[in-house]
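worker-03 picked up job from queue 'complexes'. Input manifest follows; two sequence lines, order preserved.
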Amino acid sequence: MDHQPFFAALQRIYPKERLLTKGVQLLAYESDALTSFQTKPSAVVIPESQDEVIETVRLCHQFGVPYVARGSGTSLSGGSLPIENGIVIALNRLNRIKKLDPEQRIAVVEPGVVNLQISQAADRYNLYYAPDPSSQSVCTIGGNVAFNSGGAHCLKYGMTSNHILGLKVVLADGEVVEFGSESLEGVGVGPDLIGLFVGSEGLFGVALEITVRLLPKPELYRTVLAAYNDLETAGNAVAMVVASGLLPGAMEIMDRLSIKAAESAVDAGYPENAAALLIVELEGESEQVETEFEEIMDVIKESGSYEIRVAKDAEQRLRIWKGRKGAFSSVGRLSPDYVVQDGVVPRSHLGKALAEIDRLSQEYGLDVANVFHAGDGNLHPLILFNGREEGALEHAEELAGKILKMCVELGGSITGEHGVGMEKRNYMPAMFSEVDLETMKTIRRQVDPKEISNPGKMFPGGEAPALKMTGMHPLEAKGIISRE
Amino acid sequence: MSLQPTTLEELQSIVKDNQGLLPIGGGTKPALSTAFNGATRLDMSRLSGIIEYEPGEYTFTAYAGTPVRTIVAALAEHGQYLPFDPPLIEQGATLGGVIAANTAGSGRYRYGGVRDFIIGVRFVDGQGQLVRGGGKVVKNAAGFDLPKFMVGSAGRFGAFVDVSFKVFPEPRAYVTLKAVFASLGPALEAIYSLFTAPNEMDVLDLESLDDGRFGLLMRLGGLSTALPGRVERLQAFLNTKTEVLSNEVIQAEADAALWQQVNGFSWVPDGSHFAKVPISPKRIPLLENVLLSLNPSRRYTAGGNVAWLAVSDIEQLDMLLNKLNLPGLVLFGPPGRPFIGPRPGVSLARRVKQALDPSGKFLEI
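worker-03 finished. Artifact:
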């Protein structure tokens, strides 16, 4: 395709420091946090206003040039992987918090605002933005919206989609649409367009302005750490807590390998020799939490744990979470490379799923570390391998694929929070029928007739760049982002 | 004309052979469920019953024609519930109808509405195809979130076959605190203060009383041993941080009866037109001003984020909502125009309509 007229038009919008076309400049955009996929885009544009984004999308539509909108590039499913002969629209400079209204508990933000910055801005009003993906200190809200990101604390208050009240978006053919409102009810009348757009992986267009709801900060946390001699007992403890009728804010499990990794990296002070750790956190109004805490302690004491610790203060709580949240980057100390999946199983099948992962691990001769959001059945098996060995990545990917299929067979999902992206698109037919997928594609084509908005993601088929893998993402190695 | 499929296959062939279909559940929201202008009633009530309910999973799957009261009863046996208080249960509302209309009662304040609990849907689209979106687990990011999209879709995109929901453990006890304020201003100020307070409430409703006074109803759910302390604390908060005139504690059967009435809309005067209007609390004074002339029975749920208005004439309300740029949904009233006021985002909805129902088997959006 002759890109000349297209680039000439881009040059009319962007000064040269915001229109990157040189090899070295483009390098940083070649991949996201799923580093095994890499593609060099034709150009990167760095808009500073919503109008520039809109004009860019309209040009892409006019000239049929594919694009991917990108925030910090922390997608774990390759969701923000560039498209060959396409451009990247880097949204980091659209980072204004346009409104923060504590009385109505809402904020209106641009897509390049970092997740954690919303909570920081809301902190003085005793409010926070609830969804907490582990990369929340760098990932942007635009990416969270595109992939309906989750986090450890989704059990009680839901994922990104449950916290978005209004959106202004530019659709792939250039139409600008606004829906939802500042009301907690969001769209409220007519089909829930927010529900449709959030998690659409960039296939409909680009979010320009996002109204989020804020929540009052929990008055009290009670964080309990329980150690077990085997993973299955820890899994059963989750079922016991769930059956007790209490609703914790988070419930996490780590297995022996991930505990070892976390300890070696951050000295979380976890009980030694544990085969599994369960973290249960209650949050909310103090009287209620204290009463729930008494009940939950009774449950955990009955659950076969050999050591139970309770965080005595905020510092101890943070230490527990630091180990948990750092577990992924610390795995890098145990293995040069790993792939991670985020399949979901019904909670009552957790034990069965873990046993099957263990069996597959032995069959493939690959270590698998497990750290997962146990409360909602969201697994995170980390499959360790050495990317310098011929065929090792493919071998690990094959094992990962078997785990995903197992999740579907147990009645679950191939992804709980990372999205399908590049990585899992070939597993979509395991979960959805041909008609289901064709229907989704038809919707996509109605919104994006030229299929230029983040093409190649979510749906099976299509060209994929060859896989490469040696070493972790630089930010991941530093523990700033992590694959969960 | 009325058609009543008893199997999926019948439903599919009905869709293939007919035009102008309006899927109907319990018919409890006549403005949405009355066929008009030659439209064909698609009575979904025979596709009914719970398909799967694992209490340990806190999820269920049921046919869309299942009455919500059947679900509520099954959940209650295991101490579980749908936290958003689906309205009109006693009157026979079905799951499908609750989704299609997007109706949630006062309980939607704490954990969200219909959209926040639906996790999966199977529906027959305008080409007679069975399409699935979402799944049966509580966390799922695979594919477009069609279950959420269908919330509020008013039967315009297809007919639901079955749906999956997540549910929560029900609080073991409730208490309601009713606080009275001299006028709207101090009542709203109290809402703003409560929004950033640590006190947790399942319900925060605003209602207009006689003489221009307004009441706030705060329902607290939780462990019974913690409730007295929490109520005292909330009273102390109201007394020190707001201009409350008086308050009253409502407990046990009186509490249950109160919320049954509120969520059953039994406070809506017979024969009136009745609409739901999403609003933000700060716009309530504006709405109250223009509503003066209509003097509707009304209630604001979810901390002043949803207005429920009972008026004598929906046309007038439509005009006012257009002026205020607030969309509304008519539940009781003349058939044919459930959507009043502006229609933000309707062009995107029409594109999806084109994809799911290109030949217009279901009514226009």
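worker-03 released lock.
Residues 131 and 443 of chain A are 28 Å apart (CA to CA).
Chain A has a mean pLDDT of 92.
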